[in-house]
Amino acid sequence: MSDKTRIAVIDDDRSIRKSLVRMLSVAGFDVVAFASARDFLAAVDIERVSCAVSDLRMPGVDGLALQQTLRGRLPHLSMVFITGHGDVPASVTAMKAGAVDFLEKPVRSGVLLEAINRAIERSRNLLAASTEIEELKIRYQRLTPREGEVFALVAAGLLNKQIGAELGAAEKTIKQHRGRVMDKMEAESLADLVLMAERLGIRPAETDFSRAKGKLISEAK
Amino acid sequence: MSDKTRIAVIDDDRSIRKSLVRMLSVAGFDVVAFASARDFLAAVDIERVSCAVSDLRMPGVDGLALQQTLRGRLPHLSMVFITGHGDVPASVTAMKAGAVDFLEKPVRSGVLLEAINRAIERSRNLLAASTEIEELKIRYQRLTPREGEVFALVAAGLLNKQIGAELGAAEKTIKQHRGRVMDKMEAESLADLVLMAERLGIRPAETDFSRAKGKLISEAK
DNA sequence: TGTGCTATCAGACTAAGGTCCGATTTTCAG
DNA sequence: CTGAAAATCGGACCTTAGTCTGATAGCACA
Question: At what angle do helices A145-155 and A190-200 cross, to 10 degrees?
Fold first, then answer.
């Protein structure tokens, strides 16, 4: 059980694999190596990997195909590609798909380590962000349909009175829903709730929302 | 005065320039062409350009240098590169710096147009976002130092009472500041203000903020 | 020295948010 | 058909927010 950051090396060339493993081990990483993308994807502890260093051209599943597969399975995992042939279209495809870097052999140790560190940083950030969103989604799912509507309108800044008018319910009822929304979402303040809605991409289902907003302006007079 | 989307073509090869101009004009764009990055940067109406299609290798300022210059001057302007030589490091550098695409000659019309449309979309989004932020910054600058502090704490979800304790002022005073903050920031609701703070990256200056937050919890009991 | 900006606070309300308790009605699955 | 969840609303009360008026005080720049 190592607490070191784990890096996966995927290359069909045994000697390159050995060389990369040695280089990265010396740099203090916990390195796991695979001879093919298939082997890597079949590995049990794949979740623990913070960065994948992969060859581009490999028999079977190549680097780009691996990247696409990972996009679905481990969206937070950042990749660094290594290639022997100058393949511009492949490099562009990889970078557009979110690769952290795309290096040509022979790879200088310093350059690779720098890219790996960026990849690790990126993986961590993505994982943290998606973990937070997932947690919020779980809370959001606990809301009843009605509470969800109230949530959206509250986060949009409407008053209870206006929300009541919008949803055809008494202000009293909205207060009840609102209280339950705060509870279920575990929000400590309205500001908190607004930011949660922002992260969840929650917006009021238009309808005649603009009318309600107009009311806000005119009634404030 | 055309209302068509303007695209800049930068290439030192006259025949390629002509060919690109024709291709893009036929596609309905307002095309302006330049023989060098320097000429392009010196153009008066450069602000109106929504996408720059540039050759990579050019005498004088090359494509990557142009990209760096634009990053400072027109951060919203998205670029599409065209290159004759398979240069992987350059393509990776360009993509890391935010290029929309990096195509090899000869370029297929459909591929280029697709890339350009993505670049235009991206430019528009970036411009809209940065315009909004700039507008918010202008409003934010109108705040006095004290109002700025109150802004941060309000957006963090603290009660007036807690903000008063935090800043060593009476709740009454905080209310005054808070009202002026809402005015000057042109926020229609607290939710609005919270989102503005988020976009401006405004967070309370730590100090003993955690203590105030603790108070919120314990006093709520 | 005077003017303006900033920050401070009080009084006096008015409106809005929030909670507890209790109650009714609807809906839907077991 | 029945029990549980969801949605609805009222009363009673208390806490916050927001505004207007008015007033004091420090500070800086002309």
Answer: 110
Q: Minimal CA–CA distance to B82: which of B109, B59, B67, B63?
A: B63
> Is the minimum distance from the CB of B182 to strand D below 7 Å?
yes
Judged by C1' against the alpha carbon of B170, the nearest nucleotide is C9
Tokens of A44: 């049990």
- Report how far residue B21's alpha carbon sits from residue B15's, in angstroms, rounded to the nearest whole number: 10
Compute the residue count for chain A: 221
CA A26, distance to chain mean position in Å, is: 30
Each residue of A163-220: pLDDT tens digit?
Answer: 999 999 999 999 999 999 999 999 999 999 999 999 999 998 866 444 444 443 333 3
pLDDT in tens, B122-162: 999 999 999 999 999 999 999 999 999 999 999 999 999 99
* Mutation site for B-interface testing, chosen from A80, A92, A96, A104 by largest number of B Cβ within 10 Å: A92
Residue type, B83: T
- Give the phi and the psi of residue B83 in degrees, each rounded to 5: -140, 150
Name, in order, each residue with C-beta under 8 angstroms of A17's C-beta and a sequence gap of 6 or more: A9, A11, A33, A35
Residue A29 in contact with residue A80, Cβ under 8 Å?
no
- One-letter identity of residue A133: I
Whether the beta carbon of B176 falls within 7 A of nucleic chain D: the reply is yes
Closest to B153 in 3D by CA, of B120, B125, B177: B177
- Which bases of strand C have any atom within 7 Å of the beta carbon of a protein residue? 5-12, 16-22
